[in-house]
Amino acid sequence: AALLEGGLPAIELTLRTPVAMEALAMLKKELPGIVIGAGTVLTVDQMQQSIDAGADFLVTPGTPALLADALAEAEVPVVPGAATPTELLSLMARGFRVCKLFPATAVGGLAMLKGLAGPLSELRICPTGGITADNASEYLAQPNVVCVGGSWMVPAAWLEAGEWDKVTAASARAAALVAAARAA
């Protein structure tokens, strides 16, 4: 709720804990105004479990062929992950036009995105991995960037301490970054 109150109506809940599916289903029930995606989808089984739990969209960190084929037929929007131009081209060949670049800063960051903009001009990218409040604006300013992913607005320490006011404030700052980038 703190993310929503801060102005972030869409979130990615990563499937990195044993209770992730349960949390996804609970959030969909308790916060009908939020668009929630399942992130770190690694297998076809996780894809289907996420859809069954109510995920509005799916995100993968990487996308091997078997998973890519299943995702291409998914009944919800998908943002498949890739780290190289070849992987991105493979996803484009399957019909994907929005992909995740992960880990963005480790694979070249802004320079990589600028390099991809010409030859892959039809592709829109969501960079994640190393995106922070300090560099998000630079990423959002790129013409081939549709959105960014980051966890700076929900540090584990704030979650564990129940510091929801800090999450709301950080979410409001993140929403302001997006609004400023769209206005530019």
Task: Assign the CATH class.
Answer: Alpha Beta
Q: How many strand elements?
A: 7
- Which structural class should the secondary elements be placed in? alpha/beta
Strand content: 5-15%
Strand and helix order:
HEHEHEHEEHEHEHHH
Q: Are there runs of 5+ residues with pLDDT below 50, and where?
A: none
Report the helical percentage: 40-55%
- Rg, alpha carbons: 16 Å
Number of structurally distinct domains: 1
Distance between the termini: 29 Å
- Looking at the structure, the CATH topology is TIM Barrel
Count the DSSP helices: 9
Neighbour order of strands in the largest sheet? 1-2-3-4
Shape: globular
Largest sheet: 4 strands, parallel
CATH superfamily: Aldolase class I
CATH architect. name: Alpha-Beta Barrel
Quick structural overview:
The protein has about 180 residues and is α/β, with parallel strands linked by helices. The protein has one domain: Alpha-Beta Barrel (TIM Barrel), CATH 3.20.20.70. It has nine helices and seven strands.
